[in-house]
Every structure is written in C-alpha cells, then in structure tokens.
Amino acid sequence: MHDSAPFLLLISAPSGAGKTTVSQGLMNAHPRIGRIITCTSRAPRPGEVDGVDYHFFSRAEFEARIAAGQFLEYADVYGDWKGILKESVRAHWASGKDALLSVDVQGAETVRRVMAADPALAGRLVTVFITPASREELESRLRGRDADAPQAIARRLDMAEPEVARWAEFDYLLVSRSREEDLGLLRSIYEAERARASRNSFRWESSAPANGGSGRS
What is the rounded distance in angstroms from the CA atom of residue 206 to the CA atom of residue 214? Predict the structure, then answer.
C-alpha cells in the first residue's frame, strides 16, 4: 500500500520572472496539484465568476474572517483586501490534491509563520523562489512583455532587488532560463517532494501462493 500526504507548494518570484507560466505548466502536467483561489473584498469585474476567478466577499465579511483567524495570508492591496483562506488549502488536501499558491516574498513569510503555528498545517509547506540570473535579464523580460510604461518597469525592478536578496529563505532556488527548462526543474522539485519519505506511507504487499508453498521453484 502506498499513499503520499498532500502538501502546499508555494512559489514566489519578482514580477516578470515567469512564475505564472511555470505554475500553469505544472498544473497541466500534474492533475493532482490545483491552484488556490484568492479571496477579495472588491466587486467582481465583468466576466469574473465567484469561486473560479476569486472568492468575492464584502469588506465586512472579509474583516470578520480576519478577526476569526481564517486566513493563511492577507493584505490590503490598493484599498481592497486580498487573502488566502486556510480552509481552501485544507479542502484541496481533503480531496487528495496538493495545493499551489503564488505570493510575494512578504506573503511567503506570513504563510511560513502561520502554517508553522497551526498543527493541522505544520510540516506541509514547500517553498520555491524563481528569479532570472540578473537585474538586466529581468528588465529585458519586462520590456519584452510590452505591458508597462518605462516608469512602471523601473519601479518593478527596484521592488525586485530586496525580494531577490531574500532567496535563501526558501526551500528551493530556481534560476530562470527558458520556459521549458524552468518547468522541467519545477516538475523535478514537485516530484521529489511527493516522493519524500516523511510524506509517504508505504507497505510492501505480497500474497502467499495459492498452494501454500514458499513460492520458490
């Protein structure tokens, strides 16, 4: 008999490092891992579906859940609350799935602290930090997206430097190269963690020969 206990895979990276792409690639390759849906206090935008894009709460309900200690991590983002419910992680695990979460470095610090203090969550977190090899490489990627003004790119780069400086706080460092190489490395990390002995239960099963003999010839 073989069973592997589910865990939470947390991925953090500077903006533009490619964490969204490799995260989606990992979920496509491994149906056992699923994305955690973020909660927000803002109103749905056109086309957004509750429980698919976000869990939408009123500000009052969100703050009541904060007071009740229901969040693994939360923050006020431009006047709206965003956060991850502990129950969302436990629901994935209860269904036999591993959970995938992408947060910034500060959010990762909070998740580590909260999970370590919760007996139901402790010991079930794996963290990965993804970064290009240099500031110049990250700048090239941000400019290649053609999605931000030069001032916004400069701000993202300035924000990235202190984030990258904290890479050693994570279990794994993935220095980004190509999408294919990054996905291959992330898959290797995920598969290794699923095979970790402390996360597995295993019993070697054998059946006795029908005639009651030793089974040897």
Answer: 12
Cβ neighbours of residue 3 closer than 8 Å, sequence gap 6 or more: 200, 201, 202
The fold of 2-36+97-202 is Rossmann fold (3.40.50)
pLDDT digits (tens, 9 = 90+) for 35-93: 999 999 999 999 999 999 999 999 999 999 999 999 999 999 889 999 999 999 999 99
Question: How far is CA 186 from each of CA 24, 25, 116, rounded to the nearest angstrom?
Answer: 11, 9, 23
**CA count, 13 A, side-chain hemisphere, 191:** 9
Question: Do residues 99 and 93 make contact, with C-beta atoms less than 8 angstroms apart?
Answer: yes
| 134 vs 142: CA distance, rounded Å | 13
Q: How confident is the model over 175-185, as pLDDT tens digits?
A: 999 999 999 99
- Confirm whether pTM is higher than 0.85: yes
Burial 73-91 (b: 16+ CB within 10 A, else e): bbeeeeeebbbbbbebbee
**Which residues share a beta bridge with 202?**
2
CA 118 to chain centre: 18
Q: Which residues pair with 174 in a beta bridge?
A: 130
- Cα atoms found within 13 Å of the Cα of residue 45, Cβ hemisphere only: 3
The pair of three-digit structure tokens given for residue 76, joined into one six-digit string: 């006020």
d(CA 30, CA 154): 36
User: CB pairs under 8 A, 24+ apart, for 95-98?
Assistant: 96/6, 96/32, 97/6, 97/32, 97/33, 97/34, 98/6, 98/7, 98/8, 98/9, 98/32, 98/33, 98/34, 98/190, 98/194
